[in-house]
Amino acid sequence: MSTDLELLSPAGSAEIGIAAINHGADAVYIGAPKFSARAQAGADLKDISRLIRHAHFYRAKVYVALNTMLTDAELSESREMIHQVYDAGADGLIIQDMGILELDLPPIPLIASTQMHNTTPEKIKFLQDIGFWRVILARELSLAEIAGIRKITAIGLEAFVHGALCVSYSGQCYMSQAVAGRSGNRGRCVQPCRSHYTLFDADGNMVSKDQYLLSLRDMNRLSAIPDLISAGVTSFKIEGRYKSIHYVKNVTAAYRLAIDRFIATHHGYSKASSGINAFSFEPDVERTFNRGYTDYYLSETQAKIASLATQKSIGKRLGTITAVGKNHFLIDTPEIHNGDGLCFFTKDGKLSGCRVQRADGPKIIPNTMRGLAAGLTVYRNADQAFEKVLNQSTGERRIRVLMRFEQDENNIRLFATDEDEHQVRASVALPFALSRNPVDCVKRVKRIEKQLARSGNTPYIVLKIEVVPKSPGFIPVGMLNSLRRNVLDQLTRIRQESDLRQTIPFVPNSVAYPEKTLDYRANVANSRAHAFYKRHGAMVIEPAFEYLSDHTGKTVMTTRYCIRYQLDLCSRSSPGQTIQEPLRIRDAHHTYRLHFDCDRCTMSVILES
């Protein structure tokens, strides 16, 4: 029995989800009409249904995210919404709020959102034991930690492999709520981590001024797919329900090729959906939105992963400026086009950029010469040629079909079997007209094969046609075309009408929660969640952060990323370095104290004022 590997792509809309499936996704995730962790990326039920129909044709899955923290007043509406998306055909429900588990749920597979802070084997074993089908792992986990989770659990493990990184552990960031009254756990984060801050030591001395100290690079684990599979991951998730259709096309295609290469060279693994993909472009994740890349703690070690100089996309590195003229510069690459957006870090480390007015090989005439100097590295963050390609139809997906053509004295018959073992047949009466010329027989076989292989604009590709007997009689081309259309139409009806969804009824139990007392970081905002934790032996001693009367002194962010390490101020990695603690970061309105737990290698950001 083979292990299915699932490529999971974001769907900010039905159109983007359909594009993801056409470019190789085995599954997509889309926001429910309300209550998803990307509040502006919800879809209406009509669009979700349309996406599900397209996905299910290829045996791909659609997971619906309803993964925000809920109030008592919202539970009834969320229950109704869950039943609606289940009736629409959804394959799984992504949730954060444990109060949902106290509702009357349909038998939809439950997926534990990364917002649940899924970091320890004990927590994930608990989620398995209470009935979750899959858990979305914290992005911060290393390969060894994932393997440790796999060792004591059998639950499906889903891991992020690409996209933007929250600096805080998911579900444990309260900074947006603290500074703007907009909760990340309610899907309304204002991304204060992408703002710039100034760092001070304990004596008030400035250590770093106006840098993006909490803004991380983007995740890229293309090369780590085999390692993640070895650790026990079977679903590979691309972040980006706010990303463009071009981004989703490109990144999905890149990971499709990577996973297919693994499957082709490793026995016992298979694709989690049906169909083969073809692309009219060469996927390249460097040519789409990115702030620079990191594999993010897969090897457990600390790394310099912040993008201190900018929170914006820098794109793909192109080359180095070799000379600067009055209105132009020379670069050591010819791969630049009119209209491209270029960026570079100036001599003082600031991000700057220009638009290409004219490109003549290595000679570039930009719209501004500000900041340009010989020796600077140039990146492209707006790629006109690539965007033009991605504006077109760039991916197709087809179901593989085998055919057998038979002819006897009175009839011709066509049998078709698709890759999911659906079998159909069509026949028509036709007297056998034998030719005694062997050359005619060869031509007739080739004509039969040619006509039956013409799948045209259908979602099928005919891989093999067997013709019996080898000396067929004369058959009109129109009759062959009619038979082919008949069997392919039958396959389409079967694929559209069959419902292969997995159903898993949720049955409440009283398995002990791995913690006994829970503070605001448990994100409990409704009475049903209180009841859930009480039944599982945990006492909620504090409401969710959003309902605290005073946020001063509270940890608003917990992260594996370390500012001291990033700035070479860590005494362990940079012996001899000393700095007076506690350190503080400030923006225009707030001050935060930093606490470092070096044994656990975590940093806490605490609101002071």
Which terms would index this structure?
609 residues; alpha/beta; Thrombin, subunit H; 6-stranded antiparallel sheet; 13 helices; 24% helix; 27% strand
Give the helix/strand layout.
Elements lengths: L2 E9 L2 H9 L4 E5 L13 H13 L3 E6 L5 H16 L4 E4 L14 E3 L8 H10 L3 E3 L6 H10 L3 E8 L11 H6 L16 E4 L5 E6 L6 E3 L4 H7 L3 E4 L6 H21 L3 E3 L4 E4 L13 E2 L21 E9 L4 E3 L9 E5 L5 E10 L2 E4 L10 E6 L1 H7 L4 E13 L3 E8 L4 E7 L8 H15 L7 E9 L8 H21 L19 E2 L8 H9 L3 E2 L14 E5 L3 H4 L16 E4 L4 E7 L4 E6 L2
Parallel strand pairs: 1-2, 1-11, 1-12, 2-3, 3-4, 4-5, 5-6, 6-7, 7-11, 10-14, 21-24, 25-26
Antiparallel strand pairs: 7-10, 8-9, 8-28, 13-21, 15-16, 15-20, 16-19, 17-18, 17-20, 18-19, 21-22, 22-23, 27-30, 28-29, 29-30
Q: What does this 3D model show about the protein?
A:
With 609 residues, the chain is an alpha/beta fold. Among the domains are: 3-165 and 219-273, TIM Barrel (Alpha-Beta Barrel); 312-390, Thrombin, subunit H, CATH 2.40.10.170; 395-497, no CATH class. It is 24% helix and 27% strand. Strands 1-2-3-4-5-6-7-11 form an eight-stranded parallel β-barrel, surrounded by six helices. A six-stranded antiparallel sheet has the order 9-8-28-29-30-27, with no helix packed on it. It is globular and about 105 Å long.
